[in-house]
Amino acid sequence: MNDWIKKALTKTILQKGKRETITIPPDSRLVYGVKFAITMTLCLSALEIAHMIVLGKWNSEIFAAITGLTGTISGILIAQKT
Predict the structure, then answer these.
(1) What is the rounded distance in angstroms from the CA atom of residue 60 to the CA atom of residue 51?
(2) Contact 58/52 with Cβ under 8 angstroms?
(3) What mean pLDDT comes out for the span 4-11?
(4) What CA–CA distance (Å, rounded) separates 81 from 5?
(5) What is the Cα–Cα distance from 56 to 23, expressed in whole angstroms?
(6) Under 8 Å CB-to-CB from 58, ≥6 apart: which residues?
(7) CA 77 to chain centre
(8) How many structural domains is the chain composed of?
(9) Do the beta carbons of residue 9 and residue 34 sit within 8 Å?
């Protein structure tokens, strides 16, 4: 799991006037933070499914947490590439 996250967060810069590219690897804390956020999103999704099975209704607070974590992960991935 670490490889594709690290690859997604790696920044590649093309030098002007040269045919070389510079590859900047992400900080290990960023990789661990993204892994934690993805894990928490999956756990909250499982919690929402269990909530719907047991109680038979939708919990908007859990869904808001899932949405917030998904937005955070997307923002990190987009911001790191630019």
Answers:
(1) 11
(2) yes
(3) 89
(4) 12
(5) 49
(6) 52
(7) 7
(8) 1
(9) yes
